[in-house]
Amino acid sequence: MKKTRIAVVGFGGMGKHHATKIMDGNEMIECAGTYDIDPARMDLARELGIYTYPSFEALLADPTVDVCTVATPNDIHLDLCVRCMRAGKHVVCEKPVALSSEELQEMIAVSKECGVLFTVHQNRRWDEDFNIMKKIFDDNVLGRVFCIESRVHGSRGIPGDWRNQKARGGGMVLDWGIHLFDQMFMMMGDRKVKSIYCTLSYVTNEECDDGFKVIVQFEDDIQFHVEVGTSNFINMPRWYMLGENGSAIMEDWHNGKIVKVSDWEKRDAVPVQTSAGLTKTMAPRTKETITEYPLPEVNVTLKDYYRNVAKTINGEATQLITHEQMLRDMRFMEACFYSAEHNCVVTDFE
Ligand SMILES: NC(=O)c1ccc[n+]([C@@H]2O[C@H](COP(=O)([O-])OP(=O)(O)OC[C@H]3O[C@@H](n4cnc5c(N)ncnc54)[C@H](O)[C@@H]3O)[C@@H](O)[C@H]2O)c1
Predict the structure, then answer these.
(1) Ligand 1 pocket, 171 CB below 6 A?
(2) Cα 212 to Cα 126: distance, rounded to the nearest angstrom
(3) Residue 19 pLDDT class (50, 70, 90 cuts)
(4) Percent of the chain, pLDDT > 70?
(5) 17 Cα nearest atom in ligand 1
(6) Pocket lining: 42 vs ligand 1, CB cutoff 6 Å
(7) pLDDT at residue number 94
């Protein structure tokens, strides 16, 4: 079968990653070349053996290019994606796909008008940590789950490029929030959002949010906390999930455990003496009443992302990251900004 040929627009950190790592070794696709406005990035691409187009127009004019992957700063996704689609190319856009749901609706309308695929690179749907926690949730390992916490923490503030400029689509809600919110919705399935409360932080940056905390109440009495911090010199766990019969934790991207109650009836609590008091309620459990389990194994590969793109173009599959999901994620981020700005709980998301 003919390989789907993909040209990368923007050869920065992520464009290079697409052209060298993500596309590498995928039997269904090949990298046609790249274009970047920065000559130094073009030099680097050539050094790596990647064909470089002399201009964006030259890339669009290449009839052998099936797909354009747009990996530029966020504020020009709209313009570049629309120009690619109007040139008859299918488009994979980096996240966040746009700066607002209005922009995204315009992009979707153009893709329908031009009859081309238009999707976003929500690569973290294929992250191992997310799939492990989703499996624990889907398999009902902990009994009825009532709380899920998803966090990423760093300690270097926002990178000092376009990411700390509001007009360029900077800030952590758009940068990391989009990944974590998309994962949250994939885990929650059809459950509707009942309320959203969000706060933003501006510890290292006055213009853009450098962190946030969101509490989302879902149907079935599930509370989802999502948090990003960039001034955290001690990291909280990546994931924490509470069910009626046990808890699961992932301390980082790979490691964690499940602890389940094995004997509810056994009265084992030995009071804990604190410096100014005594507590039985908060006393740790003894080993006889709980059992520890390893995390389940999952088998996921990001190669399936571009495989799906190629198959969708060939009419053999439907796109995994749909327009409805893209709009839902974008509208959710807008609801977070609204909640933070007005210090209010948003109750009319759906
Ligand atoms: N999915 C992920 O895991 C992930 C990770 C990092 C970045 N991203 C996304 O990828 C995109 C790029 O981020 P990055 O970290 O590579 O940024 P970057 O600043 O490293 O690279 C952006 C590149 O785009 C080039 N560029 C700017 N305007 C251009 C234009 N008009 N035509 C062609 N090239 C142009 C710049 O010269 C630069 O080389 C952003 O949307 C970002 O959010 C996604």
Answers:
(1) no
(2) 23
(3) very high
(4) 100
(5) 16
(6) no
(7) 98
Share above pLDDT 90 across residues of the chain, in percent, rounded to a whole number: 91
Q: Which atom of ligand 1 is nearest to the CA of 93?
A: 41
Is the confidence at residue 227, as pLDDT, over 90?
A: yes
Query: Considering only CA atoms, which residue is closest to atom 30 of ligand 1?
Result: 37
**CATH fold of 125-300+332-342, please?**
Dihydrodipicolinate Reductase; domain 2 (3.30.360)
| Residue whose CA lies nearest to ligand 1 atom number 27 | 72
Which ranges in the chain are annotated with CATH 3.30.360.10? Answer: 125-300+332-342
120 lines ligand 1 (CB under 6 A): no
Beta bridge partners of 212: 200, 228
The band of 264, judged by pLDDT with boundaries at 50, 70 and 90, is confident
Q: 123 φ, ψ to 5°?
A: -60, -25
Could you tell me where in the chain the CATH 3.40.50.720 domains are found?
4-121
Tokens of residue 24, six digits: 């590498």
Backbone angles phi, psi at 153, to 5 degrees: -130, 135
The pLDDT of residue 61: 98
Q: What is the pTM of this model?
A: 0.97
* Cβ contact 348:339 at 8 Å: no
Pocket test for ligand 1, best of 8, 9, 11, 14 (most atoms within 8 A of CB): 14
- Where does the pLDDT of residue 269 fall: very low under 50, low under 70, confident under 90, or very high at 90 and above? confident
Residues, the chain:
350
Ligand 1 lined by 123 (C-beta under 6 Å):
yes
Q: Which CATH architecture has domain 4-121?
A: 3-Layer(aba) Sandwich (3.40)
Tens of pLDDT, residues 141-158:
999 999 999 999 999 999
Identify the band that residue 205 occupies on the pLDDT scale cut at 50, 70 and 90: confident
Give the containing element (helix H, strand E) for 135. helix 128-138
Which of 43, 59, 72, 91 to mutate for ligand 1's pocket (most ligand atoms within 8 Å of CB)? 72
- Tokens at 272, concatenated: 């804990």
Closest C-alpha among 150, 224, 161 to residue 194: 224
